[in-house]
Structure formats: structure tokens, C-alpha cells
Amino acid sequence: MSNDADRPVCLEAKGVWKVFGAKTDAAIQMSNAGSTRAEVLKATGCTIGVKDVSLQVQRGETFVVMGLSGSGKSTLVRCIAQLTDSTLGNVLLDGEDLTAMDSSSLREVRRQKLSMVFQHFGLFPHRTVIDNAAYGLEVQKVPKSQRLERARDVLSEVGLQGYELHYPGQLSGGMQQRVGLARALTVDPEILFFDEPFSALDPLIRRDMQDQLLDLQQRLQRTIVFITHDFAEAIKLGDRIAIMKDGVFDQVGTASELITEPATDYVREFTEDIPKTKVLTAADVMSAPTDTAMSGTVHASDTIESLLPVLLKHGEPVGVVDASGQTVGIVNRAAVADLLAGAQ
Amino acid sequence: MTATVPTITPSVDSHTLRRWGPLAGLAAGAVVLQVVFGASENFPARWDTTFAAPIDDAGNWLRANRQTHPVFTGFFTPLRTVVDAIINAFTDILLWLPWYAVLALAAAVPARVRMYRAAATIVGALLYTGLIGFWEETMQTLALMSTAVFLAVLIGLPLGVIAAFRPGFEAALRPVLDVMQTVPAFIYFLPLFMLFSIGNVPGTVATLIYALPPVVRLTTLGIQSVPESAVQASEMYGATPRQTLFKVQLPMAIPSIITGLSQTIMMALGVVVLATLVGAKGLGSPVLQSLNQRRTGRGIAAGLAIMAVAMVLDRMWKSAAERDPLKRHDRRTLLGVLGAILVAITIGRFASVDTFPEVADWTLFDPVDDGVVWIRDNLRWVTRTFNDTLVTYAFLPARDLLSTTLAWPVVVFVTGWACWRVKGLGFAAFSAASLLFIGLIGLWDEAISTLVSVLIASALALAIAIPVGIWAGRRPKVEAFISPILDGLQTIPSLVYIIPVVIFFTVGVVPGIVATILYAMVPGVRITALGIKEVSTESLEASRTFGATPRQTLLGVRIPLAAPTIMAGVNQVIMMSLAMVIIAGLVGGGGLGFQTVVVLKDSEFGLGFEVGAALVLMAMILDRFTEAAADKMQPHRSAT
């Protein structure tokens, strides 16, 4: 994962609303006037799923939407992927408005650019693993030998070689989701949507799958929109994380931003249980370089955890260098101690 | 229960009124009506508006114009020709093939996917039919059934698909399917007979009508129960709605459709026997023949052959649906086997060893008759007592009470009242109007007689079915033991076991009732056992934790929790009893069943329509009544 801030925006949502019910106009009006979801529901019978959400995802970025159940995160990703129509707002993909498209152009965009991995896998139980993986190419009418070859390659990439002729029902949950992942990758999509893909899996298998996804992303550099209810997962995978509550984003930022400057108490509650030393980096604690002799150097992206032994062994201050080797700051023990104490 | 402010009311508080008011109203209304109308005779004959005449005219018109009118020359006759041609071609092929080739080809369907047990069953079943001398009839029935099933899929699948995507269409279709399934097959035989004339076709179409509703329903259900994520996944990869339908939704609905079909095949085989009455060829005629000759053994021989056809079709369907390529034999083996069969066919055709060797025939089962006669002669005191008791103390008093003692308005009023209590005013109005209609077409006495025997048969069937079901539900071994017996009772055409029943009890009301009990108790036992088994182990464990005895657990937890399911069983039992009315009519059951037999013998179109309408209306009242009663027993509804 890299953190380049100036990559081009590839997916953009502008003022997306999703209101369930009949009187959507009235509900939106009330909501804009400051009524809560419960008040709107009582007055209009409408449920506000997503309230005026805007976001921009850069090419190659992993954008995580994290929220608890009922926060609207699944509805949001379905609006963006156009599986449900949003009540208001636009979704732009490479500058093209998906919300304005007719169904056949949308289908074309999906075939070319989009893919999705589902929470309950959404596999086709009547098709073999390889036919599941090749489904996206099959609906594009790619010749059989060609699509099976491609599917076979992707299956071995996710560690499923030898299982091509099995049926999903014969596989464990983790392997089934690998099929889901392979199916999404076979079409070589520009954007991958993940709707809580690992939440149905056991903790150990979940960690494996997360590692595999990181590994794949390192090589493939796709644009990913990832939905999860697990804050640790969000931090592990996300370049940027949006915390969603009651249909709106409470805060959008990198993991360190969320931890060091939580915008609301709600965000703070999530960050409290996270071991800071594993998330925060030298860049978060450094101060401006001084003339004092430095007793060692660390990279700006090193975590505090890996920084501590250096600090304890070599004495302070420790120099911080960026990717090009340029010194950008120093770290001393007091700053680290302050941060850890303050964060608790 | 919420606390209410105590009010002091001296005599009648609102609770008492709510509770006893309707009952008081019932009693008062009944007494008044009885006093006013009690002196007059039965349903007034002068009201008898017979609808028969115009319908008879229509029937005559049909008969006269069958050769000439465009409706026939342009639609029914070609349709009949096509269906007939399919059946005949199919029969011809099956009979042209040497018998062992039919065996091999049928067995190859399951063997292809390594379902060897099913293949062995098919071989055994077909061998039986050949050995007993029914090869030709079996092939005819097989062809008729396959054609009906094929047509049911051809028509039912698209209807089911449309219904799955268009709720309006489904809502419009549902009552039609309900009627198709509720109405006994015999009723629509007559119009079909008029439209298609004698032969294979009315029987096929009747089977088709029977098989269509489950195909449509289960297609819709199968498509609708495809997980949303699978459909969304398909959509997400850019599949067109058509691609999603054919690649995802329909294939995923196939297991559900197959289940529906194999259920239907079993039930539709009962129609085969009836189809013989309107000229279809096949295994039905030996069954009818043995009924006429009172030969139990031969009836069983032919009945078993029908069961064999059911098994063959069932196994072939199920294995055809198996799509796992890992289980499939490779193409070379298949081609090899197919080649061998072809060679065998050629040799067989040249050497003329194509007909099944005449090893034995159905007289093989004649010793059974001696047993039946022995039982009849030695257990006469039992059957006689049972017969007399049932007639003197149950059937006659009940029939007389309803048709003579009580004035007809009382019967209508009480029925309406009960329907109102259980479901509401709309249903009450429907029931009362239906009864009035039955009276107006002059079938009041017949309907009462039928109703009484249906209710007696249902009550006795339930008296057996519920305890047996409870027993089977708690003891898997018992269930394993009775399950094949139940299968047999349901699959063997009821006309087969009516033969010994008639021999025991001679002709009259009772053999019909006994045969009905045998047939109708099957779903009662099944559903009761299911309800008892479905009670959650957690509830049972909770009961045991508190130190309840097995008896307390059974009476306090198991049965109450299973009650709604058992009530659904009651519904099934009553509907099955009604379906047997006509069969009972064949052996002197009287009532509407007897009328049907008359109708079919003399092709009285108008009377046939009236009898059919009366039966349909009774079926609808009984069905909805028991359904609503079962609904009321659901725990979440019972809180008022």
C-alpha cells in the first residue's frame, strides 16, 4: 500500500442518498432540516439508509467504509455499484455518470470495469469452481477454452489449483470466498467492491484472507472499495477509512489520522482498543530536525513498535528519513511516551 | 395481559359477552330457524333450478359439432392429434425396441452418474412388469405418463418463470392452480372427454392438469429462493437478465422443480386407472378388470405394476437432475455402452427376440384371493359388526340429523356461523352461498350424504393417524417400519385395495369409508410425525431440566408445539377423503360419488357439471376452514 496523495480520482460519489419508503421527498426535506432518522421514520414511514454521502476514491487506493450493522454501509456500496438505485446523487466512474446510464451501457461498464465479492459469497452452487470463476467472461461470451484458461490461472493465484472441478458446497468457507475472489479477479476489473467479504469466516482464516488480499493488492494495484464492521480489519487493509454511522460519514482519513485526531467520540471509541504502537508511525511522533547528533535512523513509515527498540538501544534522538533517504525529522523518547500516554 | 381498572358490573361484563355472545347467537338463531322451517320438507324441490339443461345442450352441441366447428377443427382436434401422435410414437418406439434394450436404456440414465442402486431398482421394477405379463400395458402407461410430464414441464416452466417475476400474474394464477389441485381428477375428466373424445388424450390432459400446479409453483418458489447475492453477483458481472435467468436462476431452481415433479408423478398415477375409463390404454384396465371380477390378487399384481412405473419414472427423473461431473462416467464408456445396446437391439430385431418371454402372468397372484376369502369367511363377525355399527350408529344418524331432522336453513346458518368464527364474514358469506347453490341445483341430499361419509372417514383416519404419527415422530425405528407401508398405500391406486375391502364388507357405504380411511390417513401420519419431530430439542431439554416426566413433556410441550403442523395434517386428511369420494361412489358409496359414476357412464354433461361444481365448492369450504383453523393455532396469532 502506498500513500501517494496525488493519484487521479477514479471513482466518485456526489451527494448520494438512499431512502427506503414512499415519501422520499418529505423524508429528505426533514432530514436536511435536522431531524434524526427515528423522527423521519415516525413522521414519513421512510428509513434513511444513506444520507448525502460524497466520497472520492483514487486509482489504486483501498478505500474502506467501516460501520456497525444498520449504519448504511452495505446500502452505500450497493448504491455505488448500482445494484440499487440511489434516491438522489451521482456516481462517477472515470468521469462517466453511472446513475445516468441506461441498463445496457451500465452492463457494458460492469463487464469492462467492475467486480464484487459478497459477504455470503454469492457463489453459484450448481457450477463447478472453475465455471464460477469464469462466469464474468462467460456472460461476455468469451470462447470457452480462453475463459477457462484465464480462470485456471486466477484460481491457482488464489491457491485453489486442483479444486477446479469441485462444487462450492464441497469447499470450506474460506475456500469458497477464495472462489468469490477468483471470480472477481478473472474479469480483470478496474474497481473491486468487497461487501464484508470476510465477516462470515473464522478469525484465523479471516487473517489469512486479509494477508492474501494485501499480497494481491501489492502486485495488482486495483482500486478497492471495502466494506467492513471490523475496525482492525479496516486499519489493516485501508489506505483511507471512512467511519459510517446513521447513514453519514463521521470521519474520513488514514488510520493514523483517525487514531491521533478522532473527529467524534464515536470514532474515538473504536480507536481506543487499537494497539497504537502497531498503527502509528515515526511520522506521527517526529518533530522538526535539530542540530543534535542523531544516534540512528528509522523510516518515516516504520511503526512505533519497530521504532522503540532503536530508540531504547541507541539513545535519543533518532533521525527519521523518507523514502529517498532525506532526513525529515527526529524522534525522542518523550514524544513517544507522551503520545502513548495521551492516547490512553 | 395488561392490568385493567376494575369495574363493578353486576351481571354481564364485556368479557363474558365476548365469550358467550356468539354462542348464544348461534343457539338462538338455530332454534328460531328450526322452529320456523322445521315442519317443512327438505331443501324445497320446487326451488330446484337445474343448470343441467343448458349445459346438456352445450354438451350436445359439442358432440354434434365436433367434426365441423372451427373451435374443434382449428384447435382441439389438432391438439388431440398432436398429443395422440406423441403418445403413439412413444409407445411404438418402446414396443419396437427389444425389451432388454428398454431395460438397459432406462437403467443407463442413473448408471451414467453412478447411481447404481437406482439403476437396479429400475431393472427390478421393469422385470416385474414383464414377468407378470404386463409389458405392453406398462409401455403404454410409461408413454402416457412421460408425455403428460413432458407437457407439464413445457407449459409449467414458462408460467412459473413469469409468475416469479410478475407478482400480479402470480396472484391471478394462484386460485386457478388451487382449484386444479383441489378438484378431484374425475370431475374434469368429463369436459375433457367431451372436448377430446375417447382415447389416450383426455387421460393425458387430466394427468397434465394434475401435474401442472406443482411444476408452476415449485418453479416460482425455486427461482424466488435463489439467494439475492447470487443474482446480484450475476448482475454485477454484467449478465443480461436473460443470462441471469438461464445461467443462474433456472439451474438453481432445478432441484425444487424435480421434487415437485416426482411428487406429482406418484399422485398422477392414480389418474392412470381413471384414464382407462375414458379409453386410455395401459395398466388401468387390468385394475378395473380385477375390480369387476373381485380378484384381489390380480388387482395387486396390476397395482404393483403401476407402482413399478412410478418408481422407474421417479428414479430416472432424479438421476437426470444429477449434474456433478465428478460422478459422471467419461464419454468413452458411455459411447461403448450405447454401442453395445445398439448392437443388441439390431441382433434382437433380426432374431425376433424382441417381445418379453411369456414366463408367467397375473394369475400368479391368485392364491391371495384364497386368503382374502378365508378372512372374509372367518372374520365375518368382525366385519359385520364394524359395518353395522358404523352405519347404524354413525352414518345414518348423522345423515338424518343433517338432512331431515334439522331444517336446511339451520345447516346453512350453523355452517356460516362456524366459518365466521374461524375466518370472518366474507368466508361465512361464501360458504352459505355455496351451500345454497348446492341446494338450488338439487344436490342437497347427495351433498349431505357425501359430507357425512367424508367427515366420518376423516375422523376415523385421524383417530388412527394422530397417535401413530406421534408414536412414529418419537421413535425413528417405528417410522422406518411404517414408512414403506405408507408409501405403498399412497402409490398403489386406491382402486386396488378397495377390492379386498369390497369383498370384506360387500357393496355399500362402508367399503368406501374404509378405503378412504386407508388412503387419507397417510398424510395425517406423515405430517403429525413431522410436527412432533420438528419440536426444538431446546424446548424438550428445558422441559426435562425441570423434571417433567416423558408424559408431561409429551402432553405439555411436544403436542402443543406440534399442534399447528398437526392441524395442517387434518386439512390434508380431509382433502384426501374428498378426493376419494368418487372412488367410493364406484363401490356403492352413494352421494355425489355415485352421481359422478352415473355421469361418466351416460355422458350426462349437465349433471356432471353440477356434481363437479358441488364437489369443488365443498372442497373449497373444507380446505379454507381447516386452513384457517390451523392458522388460529399458530402461537403468535392466538394471543388476543
Task: Give keywords.
heterodimer, A: alpha/beta, Rossmann fold, CBS-domain, six-stranded mixed β-sheet, four-stranded antiparallel β-sheet, 22% strand, B: mainly alpha, 82% helix
Oligomer: heterodimer
- Please identify which CATH superfamily of the domain at 1-94 and 190-200 and 215-274 in chain A we are dealing with: P-loop containing nucleotide triphosphate hydrolases
Percentage of helical residues of chain A? 40-55%
Percent of residues in β-strands of chain B: under 5%
Tally of DSSP helical segments of chain A: 16
**Share in helix of chain B:** over 70%
Q: Span from first to last CA of chain B?
A: 10 Å
**Strand order in the largest sheet of chain A:** 6-7-8-3-9-10
Q: SS-based structural class of chain B?
A: mainly alpha
Give me the CATH architecture of the domain at 1-94 and 190-200 and 215-274 in chain A, please.
3-Layer(aba) Sandwich
Number of strands of chain B: 0
Number of strands of chain A: 13
**CA-CA gap between termini of chain A:** 28 Å
Poorly predicted residue ranges of chain A: none
How much is the radius of gyration of chain B in Å? 27 Å
Mean pLDDT of chain A, to the nearest integer, reads 86
H/E series of chain B: HHHHHHHHHHHHHHHHHHHHHHHHHHHH
Mean pLDDT of chain B: 80
Strand content of chain A: 15-25%
Q: Report the biggest beta sheet of chain A as strand number plus sense, adding barrel if it closes.
A: 6 strands, mixed
What does this structure look like?
Chain A has 344 residues and is α/β, with parallel strands linked by helices. Among the domains of chain A are: 1-94 and 190-200 and 215-274, Rossmann fold (3-Layer(aba) Sandwich); 278-343, CBS-domain (Roll), CATH 3.10.580. Chain A is built from 16 helices and 13 strands. In chain A, a hairpin with a 2-residue loop joins β4 and β5 (96-97). In chain A, α1 (24-32) runs antiparallel to α2 and α7 packs across α8. Chain A is globular and about 65 Å long. The mean pLDDT of chain A is 86. Chain B is mostly helical and 640 residues long. Chain B is built from 28 helices and no strands. Chain B has helices at residues 14-37, 52-65, 70-96, 99-112, 116-131, 135-165, 167-182, 185-196, 200-224, 228-236, 241-277, 284-293, 296-320, 331-351, 366-378, 380-405, 408-422, 425-440, 444-474, 476-491, 494-505, 509-534, 537-545, 550-579, 581-586, 591-602, 605-633, 635-638. The longest helix of chain B is centred in the middle third of the chain and has 37 residues, at 241-277. Chain B starts with 13 loop residues before the first helix and ends with a helix. Classes of the chains: A alpha/beta (344), B mainly alpha (640).
